[in-house]
Amino acid sequence: MYFTTLQLGINMKKYQLGEFEEIVLLTVGVLYDEAYGVAIKKEIVDRLGRKVSVGALQSALRRLEKKGYLSSRKGETNSRRGGRPKLYFQITSLGQRALEHTRESRNQLWDAIPQAALKLKPAH
User: Fold this and answer.
1) Can you tell me the distance from the alpha carbon of 105 to that of 12, in angstroms, rounded to the nearest whole number?
2) Domains of the chain, each with CATH number or no CATH
3) Alpha-carbon 78 to chain mean position
């Protein structure tokens, strides 16, 4: 199915995700009930070999929650954490739609690339 530029523009603004936001949302999904800051960071490093600063991750999590793509809940307090509870994240239905839209948009672009364009000679 193809969309007009107007339709894509409306959907893109509604479900706009940056690359790192997409990675964070997908990682929250992978971790499911165990998606809290340290675990999310570790999963991104382990799966993608990508360095992640705690600050960048926390900013992305707050931004995604503000957009309505994530919800959070507090876990139990722990003396090792100075009595602070872990904050667990979960993808919302809006977050799921944003991920689906992003995947569909990428697939449309991949499907539109002529085969000849992917058989380029290596750069010298």
Assistant:
1) 9
2) 18-97 (1.10.10.10)
3) 28
**Residues 6 or more apart whose Cβ sits within 8 Å of residue 15:** 97, 98, 101, 102
Give the global pTM: 0.80
Cα 64 → chain centroid: 9
Of 110, 101, 36, 24, give the one whose Cα is nearest residue 72.
Answer: 36
At 61-111, the pLDDT tens digits run: 999 999 999 999 999 887 777 778 999 999 999 999 999 999 999 999 999
β-sheet bridge partners, residue 87 = 74
What's the rounded Cα separation, in Å, for the pair 99 and 85?
28
- Taking the C-alpha atoms of residue 43 and residue 31, their distance in angstroms, rounded to an integer, is 8
Is residue 35 within 8 Å of residue 88, measured between CB atoms?
A: yes
Q: What is the rounded CA–CA span in Å between residue 18 and residue 62? A: 14
Distance in Å from the first CA to the final CA of the chain: 38
